[in-house]
Amino acid sequence: MTPLLQVDAVSKFYGARIGCAEVSFDLYPGEVMGIVGESGSGKSTLLNCLAGHLQPDAGAVRFDTRAGGLRDTITMSEPERRMLGRTDWAFVHQHARDGLRMNVSAGGNVGERLMAVGARHYGEIRNTATDWLGRVEIAADRIDDRPSAFSGGMQQRLQIARNLVTGPRLVFMDEPTGGLDVSVQARLLDLMRGLVREMGLSAIIVTHDLAVVRLLADRLMVMKDGHVVETGLTDQVLDDPQHGYTQLLVSSVLQV
Amino acid sequence: MNVSAYNFAYLDEQTKRMIRRAILKGLAIPGYQVPFASREMPMPYGWGTGGVQVSAAVLVPEDTFKVIDQGADDTTNAVSIRRFFEKTAGVAVTEDTARASVIQTRHRIPEMPLRSDQILVYQVPIPEPLRFLEPSEVETRKIHSLEEYGLMHVKLYEDISQHGAIATAYAYPVKVEGRYVMDPSPIPKFDNPKLTMDAIQLFGAGREQRIYALPPHTRVVSLDFEDFPFEASKADHACDLCGAGDSYLDELIVDDAGGRLFMCSDTDYCTTRRAAGHVGAQGVPAKEDVA
Fold first, then answer.
1. What pLDDT score does A256 carry?
2. Does the beta-carbon distance from B226 to A121 stay under 8 Å?
3. Can B50 be counted among the known catalytic residues?
4. Strand pairing of B119-123 and B200-205?
5. Tell me: the pLDDT tens digits for A89-109?
């Protein structure tokens, strides 16, 4: 089986400082990978390198494209990479405001990716948008409201709908539940778990919330100071942490 | 100041040369916004500084110059720009569309079809069609260079979802020769089909420092949706002065009782028709009509 994404010794430096160093892993279709670690451990840097937002200083990121098989996304041309960015990839930002157009209605937000890949039939775009709003539990009569009129949780769900509407195969998520209260988080996680399973998505989720990875991720990667210190199946890493830092991380979670 | 102290058409020759280079580049890449070093002109930004610089660069002493503002030859803006070139270039001026060789316009295309020996110069306030959707210039340039124009349709989508139809009535975005998406300046969308014409069309944006152009017979397509096709709309009425049913109309409130009058926005077209004996519903024959 070919991996969907092959990450080979990716490193990114900010001057003399390490962003992330020598990170390698394979992600297979339908698999959800969690990346955890404290702030400043290089999680977001790594995610941005993988998603093509940052240019890594070394290494290769190979993606199994529909047309040409495994291709290095770092050396491919910018139009091709941006094309992937709006078809096969999706990026869910921590702050919905970064991923949404706040002055465009919910329907327009969801429709943008469809129009970006050539949809030119208003009725069909609108039907698809309505369908997707329903799937992320936003009432159909909110379709013409702007995201600024939405609550934080709704904005985040709208951002997910906007990203998944073109049927991507790989979703990058940067702290998708950050800044939401726990009950909203729980609903969002439930929704994401459903969508990931139903659409057979592969996902890479960066978070510092261990509950999120416990619920969503099949495999886990623990990062500290730009290095990967431990990898393994999620339950295995969380229940039987080997590395000192992972043990600290797991024991730091408050038990209510 | 002595008028002869100015170079022909106000700008110095080096500046005109620079602008001509931008114009030629614009003609070579239809719809592409060419940056140019816009000069300070003796009029405020927003009054047509871009159009004036382009006109200055293309004018030759043998030219006959015409200026229209919203189709009219007799508004402040049109009169002052016409006088400006009368003074600084000494060219002949006219209000007659057929006699003019260079026509500077704000917000309209003349009703009369233009010929291949004429040049139409537009004053453009905001040359970037994506500006209100994407504030970053770096990003819009990337969108143009990579042809990622999905965003333009988001604007039209928003129109339909809010108004039930594409409500954009002016500055309606067009695609030029299947490549660049272009803002045709704030002309009514009624004029969009006329953008494919025999004359050269030059667009100058002074404050934004951009020039772009359409060579004759360039294919210009207005963007739309399959189920909401583009429609060149105008007031559903005939001109009350000359009776024309095919021209773009201005609506005027003429008294305190809400009385209204529709008249051609192209004054030369209306005058010519009235002189030829056409009379509209509220019009009077041309001879008596001195106002």
1. 66
2. yes
3. no
4. parallel
5. 999 999 999 999 998 999 999
Q: How many residues does chain B have?
A: 291
The token duo for B209 is 């420092």
Q: Cα(A107)–Cα(A100) distance, rounded to whole angstroms?
A: 11
- Please give the backbone phi and psi of residue A187, each rounded to the nearest 5 degrees, phi first: -65, -40
Sign of the dihedral defined by the CA atoms of residues A101, A106, A110, A111, in that order: negative
Could B150 and A105 be called an inter-chain contact, meaning their C-beta atoms sit closer than 8 Å? no
Using CA atoms, how far apart are residues A47 and A49, in angstroms rounded to an integer?
5
Q: Which residues pair with A91 in a beta bridge?
A: A172
**Considering only residues 255 to 274 of chain B, which have any Cβ-Cβ distance to chain A shorter than 8 Å?**
none
Return the half-sphere exposure (C-beta side, CA atoms, 13 A cut-off) of residue A210.
20
Cβ atoms of A136 and A128 closer than 8 Å: no
- 3-class DSSP state of A94: coil
> What pLDDT band is residue A67 in, cutting at 50, 70 and 90?
confident
- Encode pLDDT of A19-49 as tens digits: 999 999 999 999 999 999 888 899 999 999 9
This prediction's pTM: 0.86
Which residue spans within chain A are E strands per DSSP?
5-14, 17-27, 32-36, 58-65, 69-72, 89-92, 170-174, 202-206, 219-224, 227-233
